[in-house]
């Protein structure tokens, strides 16, 4: 490598760090400049990003299809709501408890993943999402039935000087940052390499000594844990849960958001969270009579322009910028 190429590479790396610093400053600055409703919207983007982080690990990195991710999201949401409403537990305790509950259920439901694949696995996960809503309505003494449960939102401590919406935003941001760092560490370890080998070629992975059943169940459990944590934070932010909030369309929208954001990409879950939060409401604003049509057309348009998702499109733009710097 010539000195000129080395300097160009250093300049490109410097620009990436500058871009990351700008994004970080914008994230920290936003809740102090936006109106409360916008702060709430971006808080929900972070909530969905944590849920999609788990789905990305399962589908994007382990290659296991799931159409029932919203069910694990609901497990975390209802688990936290019941602990806060029925047992009067403080909200910080509900996060690890809801994540552990979702992890245990995901570990158990991961058993079919060791025997099924492709369309058959997708149908099993879809069935989980379908029967969850009537199940929640049936146990009314615990779940509140169709009326759901109304909860008190976490209040900011006096020393923080923050409004309620700002406090919830920073709580969610802290959970999201921890989830991303933890998942990044897993994917950088031998576990991540094993998951990628399972995704790329199961036969070759098994020949190399990778325990397929173990890593498939791990992917389901880890994915469910992150969805459960996101569901818990959802309960904090919304202050209300009802069965109809977790219909099967939520699972489908999550999967669509992840694909649009960028399957298997580090930025895919965050971009997918933006998609899940803003595109349905945008579709409703464009055409109140047929928001589903607008929603579908937007997905088709994004996939046509960016087949590898928005993260892939951004990556190609960054690569072109790097090449420009190297030639300059």
TrEMBL record:
It is found in: Cell membrane. It is a multi-pass membrane protein. This is Branched-chain amino acid transport system permease protein. One of its GO terms (molecular function) is branched-chain amino acid transmembrane transporter activity. Pfam families: BPD_transp_2. InterPro entries: ABC_transp_permease, LivM-like. GO terms for cellular component: plasma membrane. The chain crosses the membrane at residues 12-32, 38-58, 65-83, 89-111, 118-136, 167-187, 218-241, 247-277, 289-306. Keywords: Cell membrane, Membrane, Transmembrane, Transmembrane helix. It comes from Actinomadura viridis.
């Amino acid at each position: 490598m010539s000195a000129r190429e080395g300097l160009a590479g250093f300049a490109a790396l410097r620009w990436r760090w500058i871009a990351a610093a700008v994004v970080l400053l914008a994230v920290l600055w936003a809740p102090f400049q936006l109106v409360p409703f916008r702060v709430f919207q971006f808080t929900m983007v972070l909530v969905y990003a944590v849920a999609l982080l788990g789905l990305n690990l399962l589908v994007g990195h382990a290659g296991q299809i799931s159409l029932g991710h919203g069910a694990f999201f609901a497990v975390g949401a209802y688990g936290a709501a019941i602990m806060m409403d029925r047992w009067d537990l403080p909200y910080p305790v509900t996060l690890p408890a809801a994540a552990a509950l979702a992890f245990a259920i995901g570990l158990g439901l991961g058993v079919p993943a060791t025997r099924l694949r492709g369309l058959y696995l997708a149908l099993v996960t879809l069935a989980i999402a379908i029967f969850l809503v009537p199940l929640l309505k049936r146990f009314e003494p615990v779940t509140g039935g169709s009326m759901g449960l109304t909860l008190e939102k976490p209040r900011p401590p006096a020393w923080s000087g923050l409004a309620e919406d700002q406090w919830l935003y920073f709580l969610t941001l802290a959970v999201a940052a921890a989830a991303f760092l933890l998942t990044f560490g897993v994917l950088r370890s031998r576990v991540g390499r094993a998951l990628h080998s399972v995704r790329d070629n199961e036969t070759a992975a098994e020949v190399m000594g990778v325990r397929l059943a173990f890593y498939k169940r791990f992917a389901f459990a880890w994915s469910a844990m992150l969805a459960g944590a996101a569901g818990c934070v959802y309960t904090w932010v919304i202050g209300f849960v009802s069965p109809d909030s977790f219909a099967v369309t939520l699972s489908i929208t999550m999967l669509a958001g992840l694909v649009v954001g960028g399957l298997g990409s580090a930025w895919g879950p965050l971009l997918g969270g933006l998609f899940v939060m803003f595109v349905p409401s945008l579709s409703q604003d464009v055409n109140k009579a047929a928001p589903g049509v607008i929603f579908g057309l937007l997905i088709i348009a994004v996939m046509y322009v960016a087949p590898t998702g928005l993260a892939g499109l951004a990556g190609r733009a960054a690569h072109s910028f790097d090449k420009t710097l190297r030639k300059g």
